[in-house]
Fold each of these.
Amino acid sequence: MLEHEYQPTRKPPRAARKPAPEPDEFDFSLRDATLEDLPAVLALYRHYVRNSVVTFDEKAPTLAAYRSRFLHGQKLGYPFRIAVSPQGTVLGFASVFPFREKSAFRKTVESSIYLGPAATGRGLGSILLGDLIEQCEAAGLKEMIAVISDHGAEASLALHRKYGFEETGRMGKVGYKFERWLGIIMMQKSLR
């Protein structure tokens, strides 16, 4: 055989090949939010205000306004949970607030769940919602309401159905954001 003669290359036997790398492990912990977490939580929320119709807010609240709402929820005993990476980055949050301000609604809350862009598609929304439901039951709350945009929120609708929320109504053209009319889908879950 000539020194430079072509020889076909063979793949090494399967046992000698490098295994495919394992996907990055997604480590996080859940805990109650604190006042110190609010700037990071608000930064995450601002992303959705500026870039989506999942919130009908057109302008993000100020830190002072957000702090006031947070403290009001704490006074009422409402859960506000966050998912945090091992490095301390807020990956997402789940909270509830009064469904309506009249006192007869005090056992009914509206839920809110937001994930940071790097945390989507990893099951964190499901974990946060399950945890939020447990926390609400422990707090003695009786009804949870989800108000979901009727545009681009299919994953949120599926998630809430998975946890037993039932659609209770739709309202069209009740919000106007990004030069278009938007509606809402109302979902409700009775708690233990």
Note: The radius of gyration is 23 Å.
Amino acid sequence: MKIQFNNKLQGESFAKVLLTFDRNFTDKRSLHEKESSYVRKQLEENDLAIINRYNELIIVAFADHSKMRGASREECRKRGNEISRILKLEKINKIDLIVSGNEAESSLALAEGLALGSYQFTKYRSANHKIPWSLDQITFVGNEITKLQTEHLSVSVEAVFKARDLINEPASHLNAVQLSAIFEEMGTGAGFSTEIFYKDQIKALKMGGLLAVNQGSIDPPTFSVLRWEPDDARNSNPIILVGKGVVYDTGGLSLKPTRDSMDYMKCDMAGGAVAAAVIWYAAKCSLPLRLIALIPATDNRPDGNAYAPGDIIYMHSGQTVEVLNTDAEGRLLLADALSYAKQYQPELVIDIATLTGAAAMAIGSQGIVAMGNASAATFGALKQSGENVYERIVEFPLWEEYGESIKSDIADMKNIGGREAGAVTAGKFLEKFVGYPWIHLDIAGPAFLNAADHYRPKGGTATGVRLLIDFLNSL
């Protein structure tokens, strides 16, 4: 998809979009008085008004500008998504978005929703079942939008699409080795470096968590290190993203139920997809920050050699873990990666993972559960980014008392706690492996949806990409 700007209308466009914050709308530049009158009447009860001139479609979108900034921008994104559905119905693939006055920020949000809402995963549809539409071009018309803004929005949308494609990819076509190969391709295209550790190297690193989860698989694990290290980086110590890369999770011997659980567990590598997409964005936009992504990857299956409840695992850190549930596997991979991150003396580490059903049960699909030991200022900046892009964050506590439930009688710790506060006890487990400023993001709720939610499609949403892009840009 091409997102660009121009000072005048594009002759080849078949649809024009105007954004207004006033239901008593008038626009002498684009509409005749009778058309403006018709639009005003439509906007009395609707948020969109459509004028069909036969040779072109005029769409006027209303958004409530009285709301707080984040909510107002989100309403603009939703209007954009509604417009994408109209364009799909009319099979229109190019639009002009007319910008005037102080509407630049809101127009960018509308275009973002329009672009994100146009996403389709059609890779495995045969020729007779292809969806005959795609949104190819959005052109901002007006002097208020800069070339740099359109370029960054275009790259941001493409980063989301790359993550969504990876999350939607079925396990039959995406094992850990194939996932790492895609990361290498992304690095070659964007300009960041990749280093892939395979099974023998992982053994040499003594990553017992990753190796244990992999025991039931016929495919080997990988550990991917993605680096973006520009010469003009403003941080000497890197910011590290750690992404969970479980390409498919059956639960292992602690087998999941099939319906509404195992059947969509191809999404369990969403954290890894998000981390890679953010590094890709940083490289494409030459972000002046030193960034590293660490992505441990495997599937989790119940083969005859699979790790079992009661096993003891030696982790990369040297600590021992008593496994009581093989479906609490993500924290074992992440723990090895978090321990490995210490060698870089990071400024900040953010891990992102579809980690616990408890997080989804606590706040549903509307937000991200976060916890960690980073400063209040860092958490505040991340929460503000969450409001900006509407991937909102709820901070959970890591009180000392929660650590009691993961104490083991025979090892340094257990991999699960009790029935209560499951998202927090998972965080307490991860906390045992960090020694630096750290934030844990549990995206189990919003990472994969069974029904579309405005511009978040059914399937992989890539929640976390826009959040981390906004956060890193704020630094």
Note: The chain has 13 helices and 20 strands.
Amino acid sequence: MRDLPFVMYDEDQRQILAIVERLVRDANAKGIFIVDRNGQLIVEAGEMHGVDTTSLASLAASCVAATGSLAQIVGEEDFPVHFHQGRRDNLHITLVGTSFILIVVFDERSSLGLVRLRVKKASAALAKAFEDMAKRAERAPASPTNSPFSEITDEDIDNLFST
């Protein structure tokens, strides 16, 4: 398998967003975030306006990486589910496939049991969608024209950084 960059097309984004928006409703969550393991926010939904999503994505990815290291120390491959309970809000973090993290923020309007139940179903749908994207990327011929940077020339780069 080639090491391919992650590319999400409009139809992929709509499909992922539909799954996430349904999860917001079904789990009665405040917010849902999909992050890659590098800490890049992929999709968000819900009512969590004003949240620093860059920090949230980065810290969630760091948390998953640190917990993965702890898992290996005790002989586990990974801990695919994390739960953080707060006074007002709670975080339920789930690994989706090998590259993505699903973060659910919920409060007293929901319960951990409901969130876990709904996340299980949504995770399967998300994993399938991400797998389909990866298969499509694998089938694409390896060539520089597939790159989003293929039309950028050396002259464009020089102009960008010249003063």
Note: The radius of gyration is 18 Å.
Amino acid sequence: MSAEEIMDSEDFRKCVEFHGHLCPGLSMGFRAAKTAMERLNALRSEDEEIVAIVETDACCADAIQVLTGCTFGKGNFIYKDHGKVAVTLLSRNTGEGVRVVLKPDAFKPDPAHMALIQKITSGTADENDRKAFDGLHLKRTGDVLTLPEEKLFTVQKVNVELPARAQIAPSVPCDFCREGVMGTKLQKKNGKNLCRACAGG
């Protein structure tokens, strides 16, 4: 499949719509999620059938949410601040797990691309810079989408203990701020039931 065909696919368009724009990072998440789901032979999670553990809060995490159906709201999308383009998918149905991580040399920074990103984020880019950036951004996105899997990712089976299913508990007022908080998240401090913000956590 060509990069253009992938970018025109319904799955990819859903990822772009959710994320808000097309970029190489989103494409990494798209590829990582597809790879992990294929290895687990898993379908998109309607409830908590799959658990996703991501190790970055960058663009790729959005594509992983869209494709896997794992979300913060369902409690099956777990974020670990490791700064790695990596996702671990776990299946509650089979107990199997797979970790997909970007290889260190798979996507080296392009100096021209990085310089244009700096200009855009600093607000100093002119129209020519923006056009050049759009072209490079599209090219880099296409590179990610068409690079062979074995050159892009390290993939390995993992045995990770499945987290408990999401809890639903009634809200209770914090004894200090009086805002409602899930009862299971309250902390005891000096004899009072406090939310984590008021408890200093």
Note: The chain is about 40% helix and 20% strand.
